[in-house]
């Protein structure tokens, strides 16, 4: 059995990956989708051309990993693509968020970093020659970001982990791509709150286009997928300019 696995598939980028992957991989038998909201996962079945196997659960708890582990051991599938799309962010200073939502920043680290790593380790034995791992990072990974401090730090972890893992797996012809979009028009901002910088509203991207670009870049075995000229310029700027200068620019623009 050839499958793809998508976390965070109930909304946003994860849902869009679950919709587009069947057209990217023609030989898949099923897509296994993971998220907390079962009704959202069920509704996917009417959208796609492949069967979706649902794993409802919170990636910050053990049960969903146990359920997936059991299914993997029973089916022994060939995972052609793993997409780690689950994650969330919160805007505001570290102190403000800690006062407003005391646990949210630790939970952000747990979901964005620990859960992504745990899911990758669980699936890795079933990813064969030519398989792909796609990790949702962010353009926020390129540089520390005031008013997005913990979120940006978690995405820096995702980017670094993805690139190192990709180097380790290259000899096995397994390719890892970190997807680093700027702002994407999804439910993400319903949770995170308003963007800290007004200019980010002007570069809001369509999730369908971002995912299509990511899948094309994955096909090309790219380490990093960045959508759009503005975010590509931001990546270049973060490489060239001292991070202190970028931080000062960001801090005085929100």
Automatic annotation (TrEMBL):
CDD domains: SDR_c (cd05233). It holds the Pfam family adh_short. Keywords: NADP, Oxidoreductase. Coiled coil: none annotated. Belongs to the short-chain dehydrogenases/reductases (SDR) family. This is SDR family NAD(P)-dependent oxidoreductase.
């Amino acid at each position: 059995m050839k499958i793809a696995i998508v976390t965070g598939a109930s909304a946003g980028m994860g849902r869009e990956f679950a919709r587009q992957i069947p057209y990217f991989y023609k030989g898949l038998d099923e897509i296994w989708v993971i998220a907390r909201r079962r009704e959202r996962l069920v509704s996917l079945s009417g959208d796609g051309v492949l069967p979706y196997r649902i794993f409802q659960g919170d990636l910050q708890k053990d049960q969903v990993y146990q359920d997936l582990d059991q299914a993997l051991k029973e089916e022994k599938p060939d995972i052609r693509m793993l997409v780690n799309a689950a994650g969330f962010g919160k805007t505001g200073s570290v102190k403000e968020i800690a006062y407003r939502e005391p646990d949210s920043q630790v939970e952000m680290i747990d979901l964005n970093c620990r859960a992504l790593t745990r899911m990758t380790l669980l699936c890795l034995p079933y990813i064969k020659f030519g398989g792909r791992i796609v990790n949702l990072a962010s353009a926020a990974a390129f540089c520390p970001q005031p008013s997005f401090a913990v979120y940006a730090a978690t995405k820096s972890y995702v980017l670094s982990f993805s690139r190192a893992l990709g180097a380790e797996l290259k000899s096995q012809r397994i390719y890892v791509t970190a997807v680093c979009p700027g702002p994407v028009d999804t439910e993400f901002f319903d949770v995170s709150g308003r963007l800290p910088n007004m200019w980010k509203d002007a570069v809001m991207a369509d999730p369908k286009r971002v995912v299509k670009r990511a899948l094309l870049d994955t096909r090309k075995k790219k380490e990093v997928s960045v959508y759009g000229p503005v975010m590509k310029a931001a990546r270049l700027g973060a490489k060239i300019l001292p991070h202190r200068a970028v931080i000062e620019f960001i801090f005085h623009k929100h």
